[in-house]
Amino acid sequence: MATEILMPKLGLTMTEGLIQKWLVQVGDTVTSGQPLLEISSEKLTSEVESPASGVVLDIVHGEGVTVKCKEVVGWVGQEGENVETQEAPAQEEAPTEVAKDSTPSSPKSTTAPIARTGGERIFITPVARKMAAEKGYDISLIKGTGGNGRITRRDVEAYQPSLVVDKVAEPLPQDMTSGQYGEGLQGMRKIIAERMMNSLHSSAQVTLHRKADLTELLKFRKELKAKVHTPLENGELGITTLLTKAVTKALRDFPALNAWYGGGIHQIQERIHIGMATALDDGLVVPVIRDADRMTLADLGQSIKTLANQARKGTLPSDLYSGSTFSITNLGGPGVEYFTPILNSPEVAILGVGATQQALAFNEEGEVVQKDYLPLSLSFDHQIIDGLPAAEFLAQVISYLEDPYLLIF
Hints:
- The chain is α+β, with helices and mostly antiparallel strands.
- The chain has two domains: 3-170, CATH 2.40.50.100; 204-408, Chloramphenicol acetyltransferase-like domain (Chloramphenicol Acetyltransferase).
- It is 23% helix and 24% strand.
- It is built from seven helices and 19 strands.
- The strands form five sheets. Strands 9, 12, 15, 16, 17, 18 and 19 form a seven-stranded mixed sheet that branches. Strands 1-8-6-3 form a four-stranded antiparallel sheet, with no helix packed on it. The protein has a four-stranded antiparallel sheet with strand order 5-4-2-7.
- Helix 5 (239-253) crosses helix 6 and helix 5 packs across helix 7 (387-402).
- The radius of gyration is 28 Å and the shape is elongated.
- The termini are far apart.
- Residues 85-115 and 164-179 have low confidence and may be disordered.
């Protein structure tokens, strides 16, 4: 019996996936565990492996199609096996009125198609597509009876062009402000749009801005580097590592910010999982450092470096794309100082990091010296967190950065 190839559910919040590329064709012989196609969803790219050994019998959805989780995208089985019997049976439909002046004697058929509008997706099996092309049929006029209205071989065989009137005029595009979140976008871009808009519309987001004096932190780094006799190549003493450590310690002091809120449920999280926003060429992902507060600076620096590299290469394990309890996002690279980070739902807070700034200031002796400052922007959900505890949390993060020896205890 043929085996289904399903769109997998790779994360807790994943509901659908985009087929990026098929690595096989109908008729190819495959083995169990062999990669069959590449998909993207929840800001990640992954390969779908064959559930069984055999021959690729059918590809239900082609490249560029978004498919819901657990839905069939193809079939694997024995050569010559017919998967048409696996399709949903055709549903009896009321005759379609094809012209206003139709007479009672006008022929009607349950296979009479309805012209699709320009933006409507067409599902068709490869065999049916080939047959339609050979016969010169317009597939937008063929009514599909398979799952999700998919056009099958039998639909093409039953299609009668003589029963179809001219294609109706395509409607004008709707007002761009009236669509669903992410409408008109594809893949990762659509997912990001949906998540960002849902976040903004389900929370009362407020952002606080402060800067941290890095004078003592830079001295701390210099002193430790001088005492360590091995090269520090994994960011053990990098600003990002030290800042992340400061955040985990501050979250222990202010656990209310290490929480989830969504669907009417508020949960303060015992474990601290830090999401590190990482920019890709085509979007953004947030790899998760689990139990970050329990790591040494060396382990933390190694994890930040490894996860970022895996995310950029598309090799990050699927379970590390979700589950963070607090996120950090950095726009210091392009020179941004302060900005307004959007909450990574269902988290209730996120910290934005800007580019290090230099400024002249008076030291304790009244002398003018040059200092380095790190701009920080804390966004939080005012439904859950009031302004004062949020400000105190941000001040605590800064206190750890300005007294850095506390970071190693």
